[in-house]
């Protein structure tokens, strides 16, 4: 089938994903401004918008990329993600909040390689599990094993930082992609078991930083750390619960404006929405986030190209788990792991990774074998 012209690729792209992601990003800028207040809040909101503009531009570039080119570049994209993870563990990596996860770049910019490693793993897994096989037959056991080894390397490097939240995202998206490839259910069950074993091992070794262990233990019993994470999670739940149906109004939340919730513009941005936009506003944001996940899975169902289908599944699983974990820790249903809420939380690396994920889904949708 001949490649579509560039203009036709843009004309035939369904822009719902972009509209939803842009709407979330713009609301995120308002929530970041409200959570940080004053001149600092204005500066962070502007940077959030700049990150949005850069991410949107990169996503639009991906729309123009033929999925076959993306498949050909998959090994290099995966290796670039690994290189970033190795670099952050070298002397040039920087430690923030107990995790050696950052690279500080010239001009005051910073980069979290674990976020971009998600892109590399999604593409790498799709390449391994879709390359050169009948799309209607399950992958061979050696392909599945290779896929898990492919995932194990970045997961191991991220745990060394340590960053349990990002490692769990990579693990969950790998489970979803392997399952969607048609592999035996036993592979999926074994993978889930291995994930739980890895988390337990990280606690026992101990691999995690003490404050990260406190986060997990305080989830079960907040009284174990009443002045730290226990206090923080209580304040978050209080903020979410005090918003009522319609909220207190943007910039009017007592918990938010009083500065009672640490890291509110990053980890706990959903509590700002819950308090100041209320149940209705928070539910609206969840519906937009859910639309992104569902849309990625719809693209996977409609795409006949195995590579494009697995890319869309990987993105959908990544966003779904990250949304579930972040909202869950805001509601006290999940332990605090430091995962940002896609498009809403402040953070340049997360914003760029999420917009690239949108571009990947659009690229997969416009692949040479997509079914309209």
How large a portion of the residues is in β-strands, by DSSP E?
under 5%
Please, what is the oligomeric state?
single chain
On the 0 to 100 scale, the average pLDDT is 84
Low-confidence runs = none
Helix segment tally: 14
Into how many domains do the coordinates divide? 1
Give the total of beta strands. 3
Give the class from helix and strand content and strand pairing.
mainly alpha
Radius of gyration: 20 Å
What is the strand arrangement across the widest sheet?
A: 1-2-3
Helix content: 55-70%
Explain how this protein is built.
With 372 residues, the protein is mainly alpha-helical. It has one domain (6-365). Helices cover 68% and strands 4% of the residues. The protein is built from 14 helices and 3 strands. The chain has a 3-stranded antiparallel beta sheet with strand order 1-2-3. A hairpin with a 3-residue loop joins strand 2 (99-105) and strand 3. Helix 3 (38-63) runs parallel beside helix 14, helix 6 (141-159) runs antiparallel to helix 7 (164-180) and helix 10 (229-241) packs across helix 12. The chain is globular.
Descriptive keywords:
three-stranded antiparallel beta sheet; 14 helices; mainly alpha; 372 residues; single chain
What is the structure about, briefly put?
The chain has helices at residues 6-11, 16-36, 38-63, 67-88, 113-130, 141-159, 164-180, 185-204, 210-220, 229-241, 254-257, 269-302, 306-330, 348-365; strands at residues 93-96, 99-105, 109-111. With 372 residues, the chain is mainly α.
How would you summarize the topology of this molecule?
Elements: H1 6-11, H2 16-36, H3 38-63, H4 67-88, E1 93-96, E2 99-105, E3 109-111, H5 113-130, H6 141-159, H7 164-180, H8 185-204, H9 210-220, H10 229-241, H11 254-257, H12 269-302, H13 306-330, H14 348-365
Antiparallel strand pairs: 1-2, 2-3
Helix pairs in contact: 2-3, 2-12, 2-14, 3-14, 4-5, 4-6, 5-6, 5-7, 5-13, 5-14, 6-7, 7-8, 7-13, 10-12, 12-13, 12-14, 13-14
């Amino acid at each position: 089938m001949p490649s579509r012209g560039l203009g036709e690729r843009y004309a035939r792209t369904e822009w719902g994903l972009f509209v939803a992601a842009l709407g979330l990003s713009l609301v995120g800028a308002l929530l970041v401004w409200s959570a940080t207040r004053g001149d600092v809040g204005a500066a962070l909101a502007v940077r959030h918008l700049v990150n949005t503009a850069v991410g949107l531009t990169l996503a639009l570039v991906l729309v123009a990329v033929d999925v076959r080119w993306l498949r050909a570049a998959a090994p290099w994209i995966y290796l670039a993600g690994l290189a970033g993870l190795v670099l952050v563990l070298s002397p040039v990596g920087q430690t923030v909040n107990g995790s050696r996860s950052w690279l500080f770049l010239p001009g005051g910019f910073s980069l979290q390689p674990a976020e971009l490693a998600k892109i590399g793993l999604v593409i790498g897994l799709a390449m391994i599990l879709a390359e050169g096989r009948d799309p209607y037959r399950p992958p061979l056991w050696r392909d599945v094993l290779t896929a898990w080894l492919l995932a194990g390397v970045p997961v191991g490097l991220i745990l060394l930082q340590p960053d349990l939240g990002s490692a769990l995202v990579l693990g969950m998206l790998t489970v979803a992609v392997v399952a969607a490839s048609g592999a035996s259910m036993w592979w999926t069950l074994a993978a889930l078991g291995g994930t739980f074993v890895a988390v337990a091992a990280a606690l026992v070794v101990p691999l995690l930083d003490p404050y990260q262990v406190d986060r997990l233990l305080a989830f079960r019993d907040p009284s174990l750390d009443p002045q730290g994470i226990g206090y923080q999670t209580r304040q978050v739940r209080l903020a979410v619960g005090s918003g009522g149906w319609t909220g207190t109004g943007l910039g009017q939340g007592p918990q938010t404006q009083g500065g009672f919730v640490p890291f509110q513009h990053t980890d706990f941005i959903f509590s700002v929405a819950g308090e100041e936009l209320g149940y209705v506003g928070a539910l609206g944001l969840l519906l937009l986030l859910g639309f992104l996940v569902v849309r990625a899975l719809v693209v996977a169902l409609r795409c006949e190209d195995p590579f494009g289908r697995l890319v869309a599944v990987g993105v959908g699983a990544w966003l779904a788990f990250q949304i579930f974990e972040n909202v869950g820790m805001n509601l006290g249903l999940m332990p605090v792991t430091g995962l940002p809420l896609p498009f809403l939380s402040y953070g340049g690396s997360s914003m760029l990774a999420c917009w690239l994920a949108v571009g990947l889904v659009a690229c997969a949708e416009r692949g040479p074998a997509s079914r309209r």
